[in-house]
């Protein structure tokens, strides 16, 4: 007699069904996009343009800033054709243009993925919160992330020269409400924005103005030292020592505060100093920088001083507050900076360099990246910088504007 086939128990049948459902969900999940966001906002002072995909945005954004938002898929869904970025409310962040970059993500990014990228040029047009939403080619919602745009109520002013050293203990960058500027000199400062004590990010809000006869030129710019931020450059009128020159720091037309620049003649300069990046642990061909500063009898810096330089007694062409050189171990040289009959010297390990200025942007000299000390003094950083300039025009505000 044959034995009839065994019928699985109800419990075993249910277990098998659960396994099939679980496997199906796992397969479905594995195919789902893992959408990530990034932006072009420069939040790290590393002397390079922000071009990395780091799985994060940088809010709160300052009102009036413009930047690029990138959307990509960490699940390596390479085809994002037809996908788009939208906002859930109008008037906070406007999307000026967007396209699909079908090439792989920048090889320097941190996402370890290969994907098409949604590239959207956006503008922080109004205060408030907004959700940046991603929709697929079928119009289905994929993901959203909320960000905030705020008008600043305060700012911090930082001198550009010390920022290049990235050593706040030895060369502080923050200046007080009455910084000194050399009469006839030109100085550049970064404006950091804040709201209720919180840092705001992005660039494009700055509009400095002045009615003072002591200010012969004044303008805002988006790039200094390959850093896309809000920068202000001021040229003091010659022969105006002893003058107080007020400058209104405006954001989107609103006066956030006033800086009273004290113009000083060269006779006020008591001594000069040189501060260099540490040579400890450096390798041959690393690019280092030395900052020259002019100080009064109270050790207060007089910004806007352009120095003459010589290396081992040989005059270096140009003038400025920075000297960049190639480190060469045990090849000692004497570097000197001079101004108006005063001179200061220091020893460095290197025999060649170039004079530069903290008023320069990349197109004037392409300052090398502190993150990559072996990077050339020109080259690819310049090409990338020129792309950013297309979206970051200078905004000049002359006296009385």
Low-confidence stretches: 1-8, 17-30, 363-371, 378-401
Number of helices: 4
Overall mean pLDDT score?
83
The total strand number stands at 27
Structural class: mainly beta
Beta content comes to 35-45%
Instruction: Give the fraction of residues assigned to helices.
Output: 10-25%
Q: Major β-sheet, in short?
A: 6 strands, antiparallel
Oligomeric description of these chains: single chain
- The shape is flat
Rg to the nearest angstrom?
27 Å
Q: Could you tell me how far the N terminus lies from the C terminus, measured between alpha carbons in angstroms?
A: 108 Å
Q: Would you kindly provide a written description of the structure presented here, covering whatever features stand out?
A:
- It is a single chain.
- The protein is mainly beta and 401 residues long.
- The protein has 4 helices and 27 strands.
- Strands 9, 11, 12, 14, 15 and 27 form a 6-stranded antiparallel sheet that branches. Strands 13-16-17-10-20 form a 5-stranded mixed sheet, with no helix packed on it.
- The radius of gyration is 27 Å and the shape is flat.
- Residues 1-8, 17-30, 363-371 and 378-401 have low confidence and may be disordered.
What keyword list fits this structure?
mainly beta; six-stranded antiparallel sheet; 44% strand; disordered C terminus
In short:
This protein is mainly beta and 401 residues long. The chain has helices at residues 10-31, 160-165, 362-365, 380-389, and strands at 35-39, 61-62, 66-73, 84-87, 93-101, 117-124, 128-135, 141-150, 154-159, 180-182, 186-195, 198-200, 206-209, 215-224, 227-236, 244-251, 254-264, 271-276, 287-295, 302-303, 307-311, 314-320, 322-326, 332-339, 342-349, 353-356, 395-396.
């Amino acid at each position: 007699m044959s034995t009839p086939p065994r019928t699985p128990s109800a419990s075993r049948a249910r277990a098998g069904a659960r396994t099939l459902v679980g496997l199906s969900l796992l397969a479905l999940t594995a195919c789902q996009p893992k959408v990530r966001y990034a932006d072009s906002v420069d939040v790290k002072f590393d002397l390079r343009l922000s071009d990395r995909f780091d799985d994060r945005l940088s809010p709160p954004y300052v009102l009036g800033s413009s930047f690029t938002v990138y959307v990509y898929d960490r699940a390596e869904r390479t085809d994002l054709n037809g996908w788009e970025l939208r906002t859930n409310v109008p008037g906070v962040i406007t999307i000026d243009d967007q396209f699909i970059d079908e090439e792989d993500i920048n090889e320097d990014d941190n996402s370890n993925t290969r994907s098409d990228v949604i590239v959207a040029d956006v503008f922080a047009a109004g205060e408030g919160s907004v959700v940046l939403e991603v929709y697929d080619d079928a119009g289905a919602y994929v993901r959203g992330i909320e960000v905030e745009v705020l008008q600043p109520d305060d700012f911090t002013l930082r001198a550009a020269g010390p920022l290049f050293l990235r050593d706040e203990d030895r060369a502080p960058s923050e200046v007080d409400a009455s910084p000194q500027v050399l009469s006839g000199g030109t100085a550049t400062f970064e404006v950091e924005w804040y709201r209720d004590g919180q840092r705001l990010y992005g660039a494009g809000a700055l509009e400095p103005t002045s009615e003072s006869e002591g200010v012969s030129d004044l303008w805002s710019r988006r790039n200094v030292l390959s850093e896309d931020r809000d920068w202000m450059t001021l040229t003091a009128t010659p022969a105006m020592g002893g003058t107080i020159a007020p400058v209104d720091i405006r954001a989107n037309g609103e006066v956030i505060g006033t800086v009273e620049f004290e113009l000083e003649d060269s006779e006020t300069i008591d001594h000069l100093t040189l501060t260099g990046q540490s040579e400890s642990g450096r390798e041959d061909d690393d690019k280092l920088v030395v900052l020259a500063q002019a100080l009064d009898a109270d050790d207060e810096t007089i910004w806007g001083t352009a120095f003459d330089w010589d290396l081992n007694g040989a005059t270096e062409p140009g003038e400025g507050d920075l000297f960049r050189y190639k480190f060469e171990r045990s090849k000692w040289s004497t570097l000197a900076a001079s101004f108006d009959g005063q001179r200061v010297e220091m020893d460095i390990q290197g025999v060649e360099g170039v004079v530069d200025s903290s008023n320069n942007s990349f197109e004037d000299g392409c300052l090398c990246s502190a993150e990559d000390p072996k990077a050339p003094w020109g080259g690819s950083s310049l090409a990338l910088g020129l792309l950013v300039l297309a979206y970051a025009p200078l905004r000049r505000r002359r006296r009385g504007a």
